[in-house]
């Protein structure tokens, strides 16, 4: 696993001595472990959001280059792609991080939080595929290659939709319905 993918273990190792002592207290240990898991998941999601924002900037740059060259037949495709990446970025940014209150009917268990962290780590691979597709598309335009624009836009759209489809299963993973 890459350094991004084991955030929970890194966070656990970086606890201060005072945090470790308090974490060892009966009754507090489970609470502290849950909070550490939630914070780890939040860090992963922040990373995903930053990568989506980076891809969004690339898509806007691509859109500008296509508009400047007046390729009007693909502007509606680019407009839909821009709107979609905005929506997906906000969805990731505002996603639940596995919290359940004391009186909530459905409780989030530690093993489900662990599954959620693992699941979010897998999303990093989807984000990487998306950013590579955006960067490749942008590089081709910078090099003057404006051929097959619809296919290139569709490739980026497919990567974004694949990410979103997997991300939409997140709630079921948190609840323990999906593994």
Topology, please?
Blueprint: H1 7-13, H2 17-23, H3 28-68, H4 75-93, H5 110-142, H6 149-167, H7 170-175
Helix pairs in contact: 1-3, 3-4, 3-5, 4-6, 5-6
What report would you give on this structure?
It contains seven helices and no strands. It has 179 residues and is an all-alpha fold. Helix 3 (28-68) packs antiparallel against helix 4 (75-93), helix 4 (75-93) runs parallel beside helix 6 and helix 5 packs antiparallel against helix 6. The longest helix is centred in the first third of the chain and has 41 residues, at 28-68. The protein starts with 6 loop residues before the first helix and ends with a helix.
Distance between the termini: 19 Å
- Low-pLDDT stretches are 1-5, 99-107
What is the approximate shape? elongated
Portion in strands: under 5%
The assigned structural class equals mainly alpha
Oligomer: single chain
Q: Number of helical runs?
A: 7
Overview features:
mainly alpha; 179 residues; single chain; 0% strand; disordered N terminus
Briefly summarize what is shown:
The protein has 179 residues and is mainly α.
């Amino acid at each position: 696993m890459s350094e991004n993918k084991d955030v929970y273990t890194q966070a656990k190792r970086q606890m201060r001595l005072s945090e470790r002592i308090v974490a060892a207290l009966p009754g507090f240990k489970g609470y502290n472990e849950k909070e550490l898991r939630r914070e780890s998941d939040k860090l992963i999601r922040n990373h995903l959001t930053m990568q989506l924002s980076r891809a969004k900037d690339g898509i806007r740059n691509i859109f500008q280059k296509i508009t400047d060259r007046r390729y009007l037949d693909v502007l509606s495709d680019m407009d839909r792609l821009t709107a979609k990446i905005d929506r997906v970025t906000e969805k990731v940014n505002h996603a639940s991080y596995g919290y359940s209150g004391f009186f909530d009917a459905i409780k989030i268990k530690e093993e489900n939080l662990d599954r959620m962290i693992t699941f979010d780590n897998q999303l990093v691979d989807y984000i990487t595929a998306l950013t590579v597709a955006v960067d490749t598309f942008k590089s081709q335009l910078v090099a003057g290659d404006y051929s097959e624009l619809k296919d290139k836009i569709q490739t980026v759209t497919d990567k974004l939709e694949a990410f979103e489809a997997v991300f939409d299963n997140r709630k079921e993973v948190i609840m323990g319905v999906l593994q």
